[in-house]
Design brief:
By secondary structure, the chain is of the alpha/beta class. The chain has 31 helices and 17 strands. A 7-stranded parallel β-sheet has the order 3-4-2-5-6-1-7, with helices on both faces. The structure holds adenosine-5'-diphosphate and zinc ion. Adenosine-5'-diphosphate binds near residues 48 and 49.
């Protein structure tokens, strides 16, 4: 008996969430649920799983029960729904009986559309666990049911009874874990072997991928964060101790960082989570437990201080960045020591072989010399022909060199110091350093002392790591990290075996060059977006809600781009639904209008002032000096004047191939509103001024 009812699912998407269209394959998933069929959804973190059960919940009669593993986060999820005008609540063991009874009454009187429940509490809901009340059961983070998955939770194990007691109620299970064994296990244990499976693309193109050698990590991290100070990010570490150390060092360096790990009390963990979600704390240094279920859309970067155990974990963790779709960064530090450590962890575990194989794939990813995104996507079963253009390998393709002589120098030095020295000393010997350590040990007597003078310290580091990765040398952890030779090393030293290395990339140099430029960036702390952000922040404070619950960064960026001035224009902004329009719309419209008017008057004069000087034939530098402006500002004036039809020759400021590069970046990045996205895309190599000018020329060309 299968009666098909047709539901309007587009109106609620717009009305409640403010979104214009579904992402692929949300619509087919929702249709499947509405057809009362069991469903398994595999979608990357940030892909948009929640909508897949929230929209059916909105349109069907009765309540959708959402099984979710973390009690601490239920409140946030429910608050998010309520902010959109959706009747939702949660039920768990932290509530008093009277509160729980009230919730049951809400379900019975059909006031609730969604009820979040911890798996352990399900048994107490027997009154309402009937097909009279329940429209659908959604099982979030469904991989928790499987011991194959990487996050097994005993509470999930008993969920198999649901299908038996509610055979006609559709179950929708959702996870970001894609491997086949886990998928099958989920279906078996839930007793839904015939569920339709929907696998969304795992691509998250807005997250740039980067792997760096894991040396001098703290220095690299502080450098990175200091140019991203206002933004939220997570540093994942392998151990509790490391989270605390990293947080402490960041704090000492003046950053707003805290540690998070399973050793903290429940209260402490909740407070860290809340601080992060409410934007009170910018940086959390955490073990992997942190982040699951946190729907914080403006996490701008994720750093892996240590290498993760497997690609699933890595992808899930970096997926916590950029849920709002804006450009975000993932940086992974790859160290040989981590690999050894991780191998030790899995030794002797029940599925050791599987875990070692997964670790091996992770290592291959870290050492890859081809597009990293292609590797990730192929791991999740998606094949791509095109390189992504948004990973470190695509942006700086490795240049291969014959490294045989370099390897011979390093390896023979290793032999001559009797395989007893760690990497730092080895490099000092290679470079002929006369420091006290070398002199005390008499290492300046070694025959190869100074044969590697012509190569910088940092480059030797990277070369030797590459050699280790290629199995030419090994770190002896029990012997003060001394470098030891392997049988392959002997082939290189004595049997003419060739070694291929890649030229190191001078990250630090690039960065140094641009620190100065950055301070002159016109994007910093100005503009409508920043203004709206401060309005949002004061509203959030006043109401005691996380800022993103008011509007997400992506929504504010859209406002900045489209400048909505009426209710109907505001409703066209992605992320503005009916409820948010009612609650916040007028206030934001008023702020926008006021801001624009104030700026218009001031701007018009300043533009004309610049134009007058340009028309008199002054150079950019001269205009800057006369007007006491920075050059990016002058270029933004010229761009505006050019678009307004004034006669200005912009092509003199940017080369043709640079325009083409910017055009490509525009496509790849999805036409982001802020120049910063381009600036970072080009690894800070192309100046803001050039990007601005190129975009203006492109805009004019495209009409
Ligand atoms: P997941 O649970 O898969 O990690 P979420 O359900 O939290 O992801 O969705 C990630 C983000 O994408 C959220 O901010 C959500 O509001 C947004 N989102 C989901 N579907 C759409 C859509 N169709 N259009 C625009 N944004 C969407
Ligand atoms: Zn790539």
């Amino acid at each position: 008996m299968n009666t098909t009812v047709s539901y309007d699912i587009h109106s609620p998407l717009k009305q409640y969430f403010g979104y214009d269209s579904f992402r692929d394959p949300q619509e087919s998933i929702i249709q499947n649920v509405l057809d009362k069929k069991d469903t398994l959804v595999i979608m990357p973190t940030g892909g948009g799983k929640s909508i897949c059960f929230q929209i059916p919940a909105m349109v069907m009669d009765g309540v959708t029960i959402v099984i979710s593993p973390l009690i601490a986060l239920m409140k946030d999820q429910v608050d998010g729904l309520r902010a959109n005008g959706i009747e939702a609540n949660y039920y768990n063991s932290s509530q008093e009986t009277s509160e729980q009874e009230k919730i049951i009454t809400q379900v019975v009187s059909r006031e609730l559309k969604l009820l979040y429940v911890a798996p352990e509490s399900l048994a107490y809901l027997s009154n309402i666990l009937s097909e009279t009340y329940v429209s659908c059961i959604a099982i979030d983070e469904a991989h928790c049911i499987s011991s194959w998955g990487h996050d097994f939770r005993p509470g999930y194990q008993q969920l198999g009874f649901i299908k038996k007691s509610l055979p006609n109620t559709p179950i929708i299970a959702l996870t970001a874990t894609a491997d086949k064994a886990t998928r099958k296990d989920i279906l078996d244990q839930l007793n839904i072997p015939l569920a339709h499976q929907f696998v969304a693309s795992f691509d998250r193109p807005n997250i740039s991928l980067e792997v760096r050698p894991g040396l001098d990590r703290m220095h690299q991290i502080t450098r990175f964060i200091s140019t991203n100070k206002e933004e939220s990010g997570i540093v994942y570490c392998l151990s509790r101790k490391a989270t605390e150390q990293v947080a402490k060092r960041l704090k000492t360096a003046g950053f707003d960082a805290v540690a998070y790990h399973a050793g903290l009390s429940f209260e402490e963990r909740t407070s860290v989570q809340e601080g992060f979600v409410y934007d009170r704390t910018k940086i959390v240094c955490a073990t992997v437990a942190f982040g699951m279920g946190i729907d914080k859309s403006n996490v701008r970067w994720v750093i892996h201080y240590n290498m993760p155990k497997n690609i699933e974990g890595y992808y899930q963790e970096i997926g916590r960045a950029g849920r709002d779709g804006l450009p975000s960064k993932a940086i992974l530090f790859h160290s040989y020591a981590d690999v050894i450590q991780l191998r030790k962890f899995v030794e002797g575990t029940s599925n050791e072989e599987v875990q070692i194989a997964k670790l091996e794939r992770m290592k291959q990813f870290s050492e890859a010399t081809s597009c990293r995104r292609k590797i990730l996507l192929s791991y999740f079963g998606e094949s791509r022909l095109e390189n992504c253009g948004n990973c470190d390998v695509c942006k700086n393709p490795p240049k291969f060199i014959d490294g045989t002589v370099l390897a011979q120098k390093a390896l023979s030095t290793m032999a001559r110091v009797h395989q007893k020295e760690a990497i730092g000393t080895l490099i000092d010997v290679l470079r002929g350093a006369n420091n006290s350590h070398i002199l005390e040990k008499g290492l300046n007597q070694v025959k190869t002392f100074g044969i590697g003078k012509d190569v910088s310290w940092a480059h030797w580091q990277q070369y030797i790591i590459q050699m280790m990765n290629q199995g030419l040398a090994e770190l002896a952890f029990h012997k003060n990290n001394a470098l030891e030779l392997t049988p392959i090393a002997e082939q290189v030293l004595f049997k003419g075996r060739k070694v291929e290395l890649t030229l190191p990339i001078d990250k630090e140099q690039n960065k140094k060059k641009t620190v100065l430029k950055r301070t002159a960036s016109p994007e910093k702390k100005s503009g409508l977006f920043e203004h709206l952000r401060s309005i949002r922040s004061s509203i959030a404070k006043e109401q005691g809600v996380p800022a993103y619950l008011v509007f997400s960064d992506a929504t504010l960026k859209e406002m900045e781009k489209y400048i909505p001035r009426t209710e109907s224009e505001m409703l066209q902004i992605s992320g503005v639904g009916t409820r948010k329009m009612e609650v916040y719309g007028d206030q934001f419209i008023a702020e926008i209008i006021q801001y624009i008017n104030q700026n218009k008057a001031a701007k018009k004069d300043t533009f004309m002032e610049t134009y007058k000087l340009y028309a008199q034939g002054l150079s950019i530098d001269e205009i800057c000096e006369k007007r006491n402006l920075k050059s990016p500002t002058v270029f933004s004036h010229l761009s505006k004047l050019y678009l307004d039809g004034k006669s200005i020759n912009l092509n003199q400021f940017v080369a043709n191939d640079e325009i083409i590069q910017v055009k490509n970046a525009k496509n790849i990045l999805g036409n982001p509103p802020q120049l910063k996205a381009y600036f970072e895309y080009f690894d800070e190599e192309l100046s803001y001024s050039k990007i601005r000018v190129a975009l203006t020329i492109i805009e004019k060309q495209e009409g």
